[in-house]
Design a protein that fits this description.
This protein is mostly helical and 171 residues long. Helices cover 65% and strands 7% of the residues.
Amino acid sequence: MECYLHSTEYIASGIMPETFSPELVAGFGVQLGITSQLYIGLMARLLEPHDITYPQFALLVHLSRRSGPTRISDMVQAVELTQSAVTRAVQKFAALGLAEVHKGREDLRNRLVAITPQGRTRVAEVQRKFGPAFASMLEGWNAGDIARLTGDLARLSRWLQENAHPADAAK
């Protein structure tokens, strides 16, 4: 029994536009997975001296991009971590003075989290430390290549973000 559809079946099923072969799509998926794993490993190594994990840093960066407090449940969805992982990270950030936690006004069970000025400074300091590693990674690339890749990654990120919770969109 075959585990895949032939190109014509993919096209007829509406799964894949006519211009994409199954091999091209499969190659994209494989390369995206490899790149993702390698990037996560790089970030773990870069963040280790700062006593913060990549998921914790992603959460702190998410808070730094917000203009105001956000609920823990919204943070769970935004960074795709478990409620307990987000809660533990928020407790760590609060203990370090990187974030503040307040009770919600309308629902006292809700906890609202906001980054502190110290938290914003910490994000900026850590990101500056990435400079040499990222410069090394991009060695040999020209500005046009980097701009194109950055644009393509932003486009892919938008799609992934818009489709992160398909069950929610169907409601």
